[in-house]
Amino acid sequence: RHMIGQLAEPVQNRIRALRHNQLQQVRISEQFFREVYELERRFYGQSCALFDARRDILEGSVEPPIQTEKTWPEDPQDALYLDFGNNEELRQLRQKLAPVSLTTLGVPRFWLTVFQNVPLLSELVQDHDEPLLESLMDVRLAYDQDSYMVIFQFRPNSFLHDSSLLLTKRYFLQHSADPEYPFLFEGPEIVRCEGCHIHWRDGSNLTLQTVESRRRNRAHRVTKVMPRESFFRF
């Protein structure tokens, strides 16, 4: 602003006009991203039947017909990966899949495998989270006008009470530009999130750990319950 103030008044007026022009562009961008969000809501609703079918196949409640025709392109990386018979990752994968047989229903560990192979999610998943994530049977979204909710559906397990088999986390969005800094607008932003309360079974809270420590000048140990990193820190 100080630099602009040093310019001749006609030039300052042109710059003010350009800023007004840019602000109008921001308003158009706000409308664009709002309509994109509405499109996402609408098309996600059209996909719900496909998500139901996916869940049924994963859980083994429906056996799909034999797929004789491939409708997707081959990934050359798949063949490259399988060529390395001594590959350590491949060996570990075979070890994990060893319990899977011709009588196994559905696709075991599907969602855990997805989370482990998506960089943004794999950073959140800790080793102690994996046994519970093996029980994850479905992940869905529920859209609202200014927020969306991620829904995690679990089958009965030894970690969660039956009342907590459906976990949710809602993300609240700001679709408009910040009035103080409108020219920094690049699209909707998550402004806050709210996770549901999780009812853990006794001794099974994955977000806590028991730590033993010895007090100074004392022989006996003290046990403390401390928070720890977990995917389930909602």
Please describe what this structure looks like:
The protein is an alpha+beta fold and 234 residues long. The chain has a domain of 156 residues: Nucleosome assembly protein (Arylsulfatase, C-terminal domain). It is 38% helix and 20% strand. The chain is built from 7 helices and 6 strands; from the N terminus they run H-H-H-H-H-H-H-E-E-E-E-E-E. Strands 1-2-3-4 form a 4-stranded antiparallel β-sheet. The mean pLDDT is 89.
CATH superfamily of the domain at 2-62 and 107-201: Nucleosome assembly protein
Q: Regions with pLDDT < 50 over 5+ consecutive residues?
A: none
The percentage helix is 25-40%
Shape: extended
CATH class of the domain at 2-62 and 107-201: Alpha Beta
CATH fold description of the domain at 2-62 and 107-201: Arylsulfatase, C-terminal domain
| Biggest sheet details | 4 strands, antiparallel
Structural class: alpha+beta
The end-to-end span amounts to 44 Å
Short description:
With 234 residues, this protein is of the alpha+beta class.
Topology:
Layout: H1 2-5, H2 9-59, H3 76-83, H4 88-97, H5 110-117, H6 119-122, H7 130-133, E1 136-143, E2 147-154, E3 166-174, E4 189-195, E5 208-214, E6 221-227
Antiparallel strand pairs: 1-2, 2-3, 3-4, 5-6
List keywords for this structure.
234 residues, alpha+beta, 20% strand, NAP-like_sf, extended, two-stranded antiparallel ribbon, 7 helices
